[in-house]
Design goal:
TIM Barrel, 30% helix, 12 strands, alpha/beta, 312 residues, 8 helices
Length: 312
């Protein structure tokens, strides 16, 4: 069903001009130029869809926020979500999500969004990224969301290399609906970015505020990698002026080495630094690691035979 049938699109010389659709969406106009330090989920005035310039993606990422209630089952100390609370995603209004995604894609492809709000060197659509203000796989409709995105993608002249990315802490990969969603993603040039900030119990409690066991993390990671191309994503930062100590990074490298020995088909590791301020109580204690430290850590990962990229 064409949800926009009978609607009037904004003039092609407008950038995110308001489109009034009773009960559905209203796109907010903006003169603000997007940048890598601003991932405002409300920049377009929509419930689920928002644009960002991604330093890891190197282009425009169309975000799909399945946690507009700011609820997550983890609480990472570097999280930039304000008023973060423990919980899960609310019920997803699939009709609204589809309307927002279609309208936003139309504006990107046929309006002035790219020219007016995106720096010239990154004016390309790189991916549709499912993430947002909490753990997206906590949405019970996760599989239906992937089906919806597949349906919408078929109706637009999008780049063949356009990716569908899931940014996840991996804690709910054991759910059948999530696994079905990952199978669908694999057919849509999909990738999983699986959070791995620490493999020690103490580190996961200190950084992610989770008691998830390493055994469960390993099983979920293996499952994800077998269902859909999977990258690890790791945030590099200092706490109280100190980078991860030898115990932390040695355990991390040993864990990766064991995965490779077991032939878990990982694509690589995405290393990134603090680009946006944390909104958590620990924020004053956090700072970035040095370029030399980050490069040395990347080199250690690469020496194991696994690709690693660094985004400072």
């Amino acid at each position: 069903m064409l949800l926009w049938e009978g609607m009037r699109w904004p003039a092609s010389n407008s950038s995110l001009r308001v489109i009034n659709i009773p009960g559905i969406v209203a796109l907010r106009s903006s003169s603000k130029l997007l940048n890598v330090a601003d991932h405002d989920r409300d920049s377009a005035g929509l419930t689920y869809v928002y644009p960002v310039v991604s330093r890891r993606a190197g282009g425009v990422s169309i975000g799909v926020n399945l946690n507009p209630n700011n609820a997550c089952n983890w609480r990472c100390v570097y999280c930039q979500v304000p008023d973060l609370k423990r919980g899960t995603a609310p019920a997803i209004d699939l009709a609204r999500l589809e309307s927002e995604l279609r309208i936003f894609l139309h504006e990107i492809l046929h309006g002035r969004f790219m020219k007016d709000q995106v720096p010239a060197n990154v004016r390309r659509i790189n991916d549709i990224a499912i993430s947002g203000n909490g753990e997206p796989t906590s949405a019970r409709e996760f599989e239906q969301v992937i089906e919806l995105i597949a349906r919408v993608k078929r109706d637009y002249d999008l780049p063949k290399e356009l990716k569908l990315v899931l940014i996840t802490n991996g804690s709910l990969i054991d759910r059948s609906g999530v696994q079905e969603g990952l199978r669908l993603m694999a057919a849509l040039n999909g990738e999983v970015w699986f959070k791995l900030d620490s493999v020690t119990r103490e580190g996961r409690q200190r950084i992610n505020n989770t008691r998830m066991s390493l055994k469960q993390m390993r099983e979920n990671l293996r499952t994800a990698a077998l269902l859909c191309p999977t990258w690890l994503q790791t945030c590099l930062f200092q706490i109280d002026g100190e980078p991860p100590d030898e115990k932390e990074w040695a355990a991390y490298l040993k864990f990766i080495e064991s995965l490779l020995q077991e032939e878990v088909p990982l694509r690589g590791v995405l290393l990134y630094a603090l680009a946006r301020p944390s909104m958590q109580p620990e924020a004053p204690r956090l700072s970035g690691v040095s370029q030399d430290w980050a490069e040395a850590f990347r080199g250690k990962i690469q020496s194991l035979g696994l690709a690693a990229t660094l985004h400072q």
